[in-house]
Each structure stands twice: as structure tokens, then as C-alpha cells.
Write a structure and sequence with these properties.
CATH superfamily of the largest domain: Dihydroxyacetone kinase, domain 1
Number of domains: 2
Largest sheet: 6 strands, mixed
CATH architecture of the largest domain: 3-Layer(aba) Sandwich
CATH topology of the largest domain: Rossmann fold
Helix content: 25-40%
Low-confidence stretches: none
Oligomer: single chain
CATH class of the largest domain: Alpha Beta
Distance between the termini: 47 Å
Radius of gyration: 19 Å
Strand order of the largest sheet: 1-2-5-3-6-7
Mean pLDDT: 96
Structural class: alpha/beta
Shape: globular
């Protein structure tokens, strides 16, 4: 294993320290908890606070989405592990301005448990909390049981929309409803080509045989729905898109926001090869791409592969996606 770290037990704290130093123009470390990263605007203004959190190893998620008109506070967990309830509580406290806090996070057992605990503790302090749980991973459960689906890269679009809605001065219930509508309009699918290795383990945490790919793989190596021979990029793009469109209600005349993220080790040029095919195939179906994000947005250490996320847009979602925002992981400039 050829990796750059000191003591594997310290890698998360050292990652957070380096991140805060590198992006001091956007973020700061919480004085109350070294596992909480805050935007400079966190806790200021007359608006709903936006909080998220999750395990490390997915950079730029989650800390990379702390910034201007994006997430206010992030709770940081160990590699591939949920943040503690205490970290979520400190993030909620920091983000509250008296208008309440929306916690927008992914559907994982540890996150669900710790967010619920933190929300109950916050309520005892008089902080009103609403939650939205992302469940955009199509292959992790059938549509009839969508509540069991994992949250993956679709969370990024949920954060973007929820934070933009909060910036308009909307009430907490409105922010929650809009973030829920965003994730309801979003589908994701992942393709894995090679595994990743947790530094403390010194060996891959799952296997993908050379010359094969795993369809529907999760960000922690959760099993997908099929293992097949590795195919040319156009065939991979077609398969990913088919999985999403078969589960979605996108139709000719609709517009979408598309996010194509590498999983950590896939060269960016290969992502653009995939994206070219994806947009052309959407166009063949009469579906327009209003805005696209291509790059490493939600990774899994050095896993090789990609995640495709498609959100169906309506007029309000389009406006909120387009609202200018800035963070180390995502920047949206005004249309002009």
C-alpha cells in the first residue's frame, strides 16, 4: 500500500486541520468541537441554518460543501463512519440563528441514529430542527422500498437547493419541503472498477476482479446488483443512464441537472468521456441538461469508478441550482 499518511489513527484530524488551513477564506474550525467545520457566515443573518455530516474519506464531501450559500456546518466522522451525536449537536448549535436548522444527510444507520439523538438534544435547548434524508441510490433498494435506499452524490444537489432556499429567507418548513422535493427528484447510480483501502487495514476492503466492473456499488463498497465484464465507456454510460431513466419520470421536454463524480482514482478525462455520451443520449430522448457538474465531487478514497446523478428540474429547482454559491468543492457563478 503506497499512501501518504502519518499515523492512520490521526488521518481524519490531520485532514480537517489541513483543510481548514487551505480554505481559511471559506471555513473555520468550531471552538466547541474539533470535528465540526463552519462557514464564516455560520450562525449569522436572519435565516435557517443548514447542517450535514458524514464519514471522512469521501472528500470533498462533506467538508468541501461548507461555504457561501451552501452548508453552514458539517459534523466530521471517522473514515467511512458516522460523526458522533455530539458533533452533530455542536453543528446544529453553531448554525442556529433562531430560525431553526435543517439537517440534510444521507441514509445510513449511524447517521440516522446520531442525527436523531442530536435533534432531540437540540430540541431540549429550544432549537427547532427539521431533517431530510437523502435516498437517491437507485440500486440499493427497489422503488417500492425507497426509504431503504442509500444517499450518495445526490446529497450534493440537495445541499445546494436547501441552502439556496434558506438564503431566500424561507421558513424552516419551506426549506425542509424544498430540500425533500430536490432529493425526491434525484436518482444516482454507481459503477465500481477497483476497490479502495482504509489506511488502518493495509488491504482492500472488498474485491473487484481485473477486467470486471460492479454495477450499483455503494460509496463504502456496499455490494451492487451485478458484476459484469468491463465494457467500453459508451456502454458503461448507457447502462448507468438506463438504470436511472427506468426509475425516473423524466420525459421529452424535461430539463435536468447532471452530476458525474469520480470515486477517487478515475482520471478526470475518463469522466468527460462518460459525460459526453450521457448528455448526447439525454438529448436523443429530448431531455435537456440545464447545468452539469463533472469531477471529483463525492469520492471513496482511491476507489476507481463513477457515480451518475440526475435531478429533474422544475422552475424553482432550476432557480435554486443556479443561485451563486462558493465552497472548495462546488462553485456556481451567476448566469451572466
Amino acid at each position: 500500500m503506497q499512501r501518504l499518511f502519518n499515523n492512520p489513527d490521526d488521518i481524519v484530524d490531520e485532514t480537517v486541520a489541513g483543510f481548514v488551513r487551505a480554505h481559511r477564506d471559506l471555513v473555520r474550525l468550531s471552538d466547541a468541537n474539533p470535528r465540526v467545520v463552519l462557514s464564516h457566515a455560520c450562525g449569522t443573518g436572519d435565516r435557517v441554518g443548514i447542517v450535514t455530516g458524514g464519514g471522512s474519506g469521501h472528500e470533498p464531501a462533506f467538508v468541501g460543501y461548507v461555504g457561501e450559500t451552501l452548508v453552514d456546518a458539517v459534523a466530521v466522522g471517522e473514515l467511512f463512519s458516522s460523526p458522533t451525536a455530539k458533533a452533530f449537536l455542536e453543528a446544529i448549535r453553531a448554525a442556529d440563528t433562531g430560525k431553526g436548522v435543517a439537517v440534510l444527510y444521507g441514509n445510513y444507520a449511524g447517521d440516522n441514529m446520531n442525527v436523531k439523538m442530536a435533534s432531540r438534544m437540540a430540541a431540549k435547548e429550544g432549537i427547532e430542527v427539521r431533517t431530510v434524508v437523502a435516498n437517491d441510490d437507485v440500486c440499493s433498494a427497489p422503488m417500492a422500498d425507497r426509504g431503504r435506499r442509500r444517499g450518495v452524490a445526490g446529497e450534493i444537489l440537495m445541499w445546494k437547493v436547501g441552502a439556496a432556499k434558506a438564503a431566500t429567507g424561507a421558513a424552516l418548513d419551506e426549506v425542509q419541503a424544498t430540500a425533500q422535493r430536490a432529493i425526491d427528484a434525484t436518482r444516482s447510480v454507481g459503477i465500481g472498477l477497483a476497490p479502495c483501502t482504509l489506511p488502518a487495514n493495509a488491504k482492500p476492503n472488498f474485491e473487484i476482479a481485473p477486467g470486471t466492473m460492479e454495477i450499483g456499488i455503494g460509496h463504502h463498497g456496499e455490494p451492487g446488483t451485478a458484476v459484469t465484464d468491463l465494457k467500453p465507456a459508451n456502454d458503461v454510460a448507457d447502462e448507468m443512464l438506463k438504470i436511472i431513466l427506468d426509475d425516473h419520470d423524466l420525459a421529452s421536454g424535461d430539463e435536468a441537472c447532471v452530476l458525474l463524480s469520480g470515486l477517487g482514482a478515475t482520471p478526470i478525462c475518463e469522466l468527460y468521456v462518460l459525460y459526453d455520451r450521457i448528455e448526447r443520449e439525454l438529448g436523443e430522448r429530448g431531455i435537456g441538461v440545464h447545468r452539469a457538474f463533472v469531477g471529483n465531487y463525492f469520492t471513496s478514497l482511491e476507489m476507481m469508478g463513477a457515480t451518475l446523478t440526475v435531478m429533474k428540474l422544475d422552475d424553482e429547482l432550476k432557480e435554486l441550482i443556479d443561485m451563486p454559491a462558493a465552497s472548495s468543492g462546488l462553485t456556481v457563478r451567476s448566469a451572466g
